[in-house]
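Reply to dn_fold:

You asked what the input looked like. This is it:
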Amino acid sequence: MLYSLNTRHSIPSQYPPKTPKFYTQLSRFNSRILTYTFTMKFTISAIVSLLAVAVSAAPLEARQAGTVSVVLSNDQSGASGTATFQPDNTDRSIFALYGSTPVGADGTVKASSAFFNVAPVNINCVIINNGVTIATLTNDKSFADLDGNAGQATPVNLNGAIIRCHV
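and this is what came back:
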């Protein structure tokens, strides 16, 4: 059989040649794997982050046990002041705590009532003015009338008073 040197070689009807179906499917499979891998990594990292936050968060009682927040209010003027401190059974000057708040205007702390804003479980606070206990605040009794007359809102001068709280 003789071959002619002038024979033209046939060129495929589609140029460039078609990608075989197997490679196309493999390419799609690889892109899906990459998508799933990214999604799984993101999901796992999000779950791990949430678990870390949940485990490290302290219970509400443990977070509140660190501080107590007491509000003094002058029911005649409408002024009030809040002080937050540790309930460590220390005598604290009411003038030092409330002197710079609206209830301590004009250099005199005058208030007619006291109440808790934030209080841990089993809290006990006493307000002592001139050596006499004028109020006791607990979880069960979280409001106190400082002048001793529940029917009248008479402000009391608390410049020489102290507050002592303990859990």
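The chain is about 30% helix and 25% strand.
Hope that clears it up.
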